[in-house]
Amino acid sequence: MRKTERVIFFFATKFNQRDYHRFGFDILEKRGYKVEAWDFSPWHRPDYYKYYDVPDPITFTGHVLVKSENEIKNRMENISQVDTVVDPWMIINDYSFIQDIIQKENITFGNLFLGSIPDAKSISNLKSTLVSRNK
Q1: Where in the sequence is the domain holding 95, given as residue range(s)?
Q2: Which of 16, 26, 30, 96 could form a disulfide bond with 54, CB atoms 3.0-4.6 angstroms apart?
Q3: Is the residue at 19 inside a domain?
Q4: How far is 9 from 22, CA to CA, in rounded Å?
């Protein structure tokens, strides 16, 4: 069984103190992992990146701004078999070239499911569901 040495988080939003703490970067580092935050927002969401300022910016040596598709490809070439990618925003699902690299390079990755995912139902369906279950 391989041992993970580096954990790389893919972010669709600007990396900040809140993300650093809620994803346990400090805990992972204390346990001996090298942790990186790849911030895709300049490329993935350029208007958001340009106009939004986070209220809690952070300086973190593992923070990387990813600004182009070529940069993503080059960085992903350096992901090894002892690295793990965590994708809380499921950026991987949006770009087939990232999926292709992950598959080709056999990169270990995962997504986070941190709560209930809402299911949209029309009011009429919701009412009939509630009524039928109460009978």
Answers
A1: 6-134
A2: 16
A3: yes
A4: 12
